[in-house]
């Protein structure tokens, strides 16, 4: 259930008991839509709703708000009509099942407010009010008649990426490309009203166009046509508040301390209460940014040269003053913020890097400054034409060997992502290597990496000898790193680990997130999953405060892969959502995009979420990139999971086995063994086990031998083997696997009348689950045939698991109770649940608070 659905459920519950609810949020947050849906829900159940809306033009006209709402006695507007209006309302609204709905109460005329206040004093009537977010103490006098300290308060904050994507997609009646949606999400700050305005403007002006069934951007989201909307957001600002906001927009990402020093002490507080700025913690600092972020574009595009000059002079004057005398600020406790401000900060960080690289290039054109600008442009997803031009104009420029080699490495990367010319890239790298006697080995190692990743795992004898002390330390480090990759591909994980450690001896640390990924994967599939998770979690934390899109994507990829194998689905959802919200194309690190789409498809298919399966598979089909050479990034896994979830496990197993055979022939032993295990989980037969056992054991890893014992126990219905595998999983820290194996061991033992092993299995399951964070790990069921559920069925399942009755679910989703009962009957039958309480265990990925839409 998303936050707005939960807010709706809470509001309905409060109003049913005759209570009051205040809904507040910024301009465009959806307050009016929320009120309309609440009123509609009650009206469909036979309640009488009196709907009152404030109007600035009529706020000084007595009884006008009531007259517009249809109260006949109020139409004269005379003072004597007040008593008649009270009596009319008293008779109009029934003793039970009456609701008063007030939108923008600060603009309701005093006489109408007085009538409602008097009526509420006489009798208990359910009341819901929507008001703008802001400092309540300043607004109390405007609508004192609504004050109810015991009432429920609901804040409508920014929407999540997925929810906003759905709304924007409905606006244009089609899917929005991830690059365009990322910009809409970041610019709107997750505000649905502003996102809709941005989309409408972009479509009308031809900046958002339909390209073969997917909407994409042809230019900037900013347009002067958005000025009226944004100025309506700013209409109540005082001059100091306006100056502070414009100053912040012009400065970009600013430390909170700096912003506070530049303004009077009350101004930042006022702007935050008005939801016009947001604070974001980053690496021990507190940053402040404009909200909604599109205001930055508004201020930067305003033709206000004189104002900007004055603000610049003020900045210089302030910084020359005594900072010690300026007011200090203690921010309130920070809660988890929406993705949208974070995405905007990442975009702003990349924009600043582009500006700096462009400036350096224009100031001093060279191979070094060109390489820096090209690298940033590739990461930022710049158009291929712009990057091609940069390569063309910089090709003949002077550069030292290090700069020239870096330029050549980027050229090969460009050949790969721009045209998919992997063979041409390899030839180019090998042809250029001889030109650089000191660092040419870096080009050879890159050629070896590309060949091994895309074609067949190469022969290590083709690489320079990393023990040769005459080689440049950078080359020796790179050779060790690529040998680590090579041995990981071959399933020789201890050897891979040794080379990766050796690579760091020359630099003191892993050089890139790509190299760190090798460490993580080697440790996770080897004997150190705890270490792998720790590296992933720490790296993710660092990336989120560095605003580096490459590192954010890289660590989210690693954590999503480990998360889905551990059974930690929440971390998978989070990683996929945040990474895709940053936009596409995802050129760096390599294989991140395809792996996240595969994992998203697998997770959606396990849940029976047909809509998400269709979304992810469409993106997979459109992605022009090879499968990843490491586990988790094979398209076959996505398609096989769909088959298995559709009740066709044999076909799924055959597909995975063919893909595993293909990887084995390419020398990708680790990925082949991983895919053989998935095939066995889909269809655990003795024949399949005998055919793949030797290849699985070719990986030097406790993980694979434990998993093979687990599969052997399933095939033989051997409780002792399953219990042994469960114990090994638990001891190694593979808790999702341990939960799955111990549960199956218990079931097999009970079926065989083996009470002793059944008790041991139950004890192990209880011990493992009791020591895990709540709702963090779940059992892993790759092979389970999951019936396909509709979006509506998944919504109902989530609400049912949350403990809601059929009537409450009907109210929540605006359905009849009979319809809910019919859905519940089909749900129980599909899930194989004998009772309502059994539904949660049968659908482990459906949980209270889970988000399906």
TrEMBL record:
**What is the name of this protein?**
HTH luxR-type domain-containing protein
Tell me which UniProt keywords the record has, alphabetically.
Answer: DNA-binding, Transcription, Transcription regulation
Q: Residue ranges of the HTH luxR-type domain?
A: 782-847
Q: Which GO terms describe its molecular function?
A: DNA binding
Q: Name the Gene Ontology biological process terms.
A: regulation of DNA-templated transcription
Keyword DNA-binding appears in the UniProt entry: yes
Q: Where is this region: Disordered?
A: 829-853
């Amino acid at each position: 259930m998303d936050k707005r659905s939960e807010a709706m459920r809470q509001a309905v519950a409060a109003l049913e008991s005759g209570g009051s609810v205040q809904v507040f949020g910024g301009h465009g947050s959806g307050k009016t839509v929320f009120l309309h849906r609440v009123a509609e829900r009650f009206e469909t159940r036979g309640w009488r709703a009196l709907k009152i809306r404030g109007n600035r033009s009529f706020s000084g006209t007595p009884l006008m708000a009531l007259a517009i709402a249809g109260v006949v006695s109020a139409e004269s507007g005379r003072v004597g009509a007040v008593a008649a209006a009270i009596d009319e309302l008293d008779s109009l609204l029934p003793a039970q099942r009456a609701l008063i709905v007030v939108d923008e109460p600060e603009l309701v005329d005093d006489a109408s407010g007085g009538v409602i206040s008097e009526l509420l004093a006489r009798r208990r009537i359910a009341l819901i009010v929507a008001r703008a977010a802001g400092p309540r103490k300043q607004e109390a006098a405007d609508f004192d008649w609504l004050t109810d300290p015991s009432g429920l308060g609901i804040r409508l904050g920014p929407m999540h990426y997925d929810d906003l994507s759905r709304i924007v997609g409905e606006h244009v009646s089609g899917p929005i490309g991830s690059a365009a949606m990322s910009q809409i999400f970041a610019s709107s700050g997750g505000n649905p009203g502003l996102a809709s305005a941005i989309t409408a403007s972009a479509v009308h002006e031809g900046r958002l166009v339909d390209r073969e069934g997917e909407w994409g951007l042809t230019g900037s989201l900013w347009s002067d046509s958005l000025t009226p909307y944004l100025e309506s957001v700013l209409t109540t600002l005082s001059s100091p508040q306006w100056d502070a906001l414009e100053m912040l927009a012009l400065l970009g990402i600013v430390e909170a301390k700096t912003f506070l020093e530049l303004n009077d002490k009350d101004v930042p507080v006022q702007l935050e209460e008005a939801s016009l700025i947001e604070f974001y913690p980053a690496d021990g600092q507190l940053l402040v940014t404009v909200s909604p972020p599109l205001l930055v574009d508004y201020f930067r595009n305003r033709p206000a040269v004189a104002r900007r000059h004055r603000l610049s002079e003020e900045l210089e004057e302030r910084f020359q003053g005594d900072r010690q005398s300026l007011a200090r600020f203690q921010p309130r406790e920070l809660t988890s913020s929406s993705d949208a401000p974070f995405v905007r900060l990442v975009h702003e960080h990349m924009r600043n890097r582009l500006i700096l690289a462009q400036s350096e290039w224009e100031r001093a054109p060279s191979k070094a400054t060109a390489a820096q600008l090209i690298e940033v442009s590739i990461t930022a997803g710049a158009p291929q034409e712009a990057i091609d031009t940069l390569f063309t104009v910089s090709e003949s420029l002077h550069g030292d060997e290090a700069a020239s080699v870096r330029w050549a490495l980027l050229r090969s990367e460009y050949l790969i992502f721009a045209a998919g010319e992997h063979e041409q890239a390899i030839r180019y790298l090998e042809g250029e290597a001889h030109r650089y006697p000191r660092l040419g080995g870096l080009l050879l190692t890159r050629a070896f990496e590309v060949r091994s990743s895309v074609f067949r795992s190469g022969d290590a004898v083709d690489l320079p000898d990393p023990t040769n002390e005459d080689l440049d330390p950078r080359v020796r480090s790179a050779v060790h790193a690529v040998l680590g990759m090579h041995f990981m591909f071959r399933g020789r994980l201890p050897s891979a680990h040794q080379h990766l450690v050796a690579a760091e001896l020359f630099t003191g640390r892993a050089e890139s997130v790509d190299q760190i990924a090798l460490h993580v994967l080697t440790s996770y599939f080897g004997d150190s999953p705890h270490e792998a998770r720790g590296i992933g979690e720490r790296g993710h934390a660092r990336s989120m405060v560095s605003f580096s899109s490459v590192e954010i994507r890289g660590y989210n990829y690693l954590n999503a892969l480990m998360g889905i194998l551990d059974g930690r689905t929440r971390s998978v959802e989070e990683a996929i959502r945040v990474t895709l919200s940053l936009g596409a194309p995802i050129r760096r690190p390599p294989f991140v995009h395809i792996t996240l789409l595969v994992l998203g498809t697998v997770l959606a298919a396990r849940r029976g979420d047909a809509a998400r399966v269709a979304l992810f598979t469409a993106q997979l089909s459109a992605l022009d990139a090879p499968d990843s050479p490491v586990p988790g990034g094979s398209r076959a896994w996505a398609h096989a999971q769909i088959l298995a979830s559709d009740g066709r496990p044999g076909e799924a197993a055959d597909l995975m086995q063919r893909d595993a055979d293909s990887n084995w022939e390419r020398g990708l032993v680790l990925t082949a063994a991983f895919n053989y295990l998935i095939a066995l989980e889909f269809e655990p037969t003795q024949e399949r086990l005998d055919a793949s056992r030797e290849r699985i054991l070719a990986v030097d890893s406790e993980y694979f031998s434990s998993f093979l014992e687990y599969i052997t126990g399933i095939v033989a219905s051997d409780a002792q083997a399953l219990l042994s595998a469960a114990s090994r999983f638990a001891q190694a820290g593979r808790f999702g696997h341990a939960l799955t194996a111990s549960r199956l061991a218990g079931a097999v033992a009970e079926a065989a009348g083996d009470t002793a092993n059944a008790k041991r299995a139950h004890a192990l399951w209880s011990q493992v689950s009791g020591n895990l964070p709540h709702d963090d790990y779940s059992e892993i069921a790759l092979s389970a045939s999951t019936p396909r559920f509709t979006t509506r069925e998944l919504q109902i399942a989530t609400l049912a698991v949350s403990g809601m009755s059929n009537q409450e679910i009907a109210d929540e989703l605006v359905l009849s109770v009979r319809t809910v009962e019919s859905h519940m009957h089909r749900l129980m039958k599909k899930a194989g649940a004998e009772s309502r309480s059994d539904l949660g265990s049968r659908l482990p990925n459906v949980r209270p608070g889970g988000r399906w839409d």
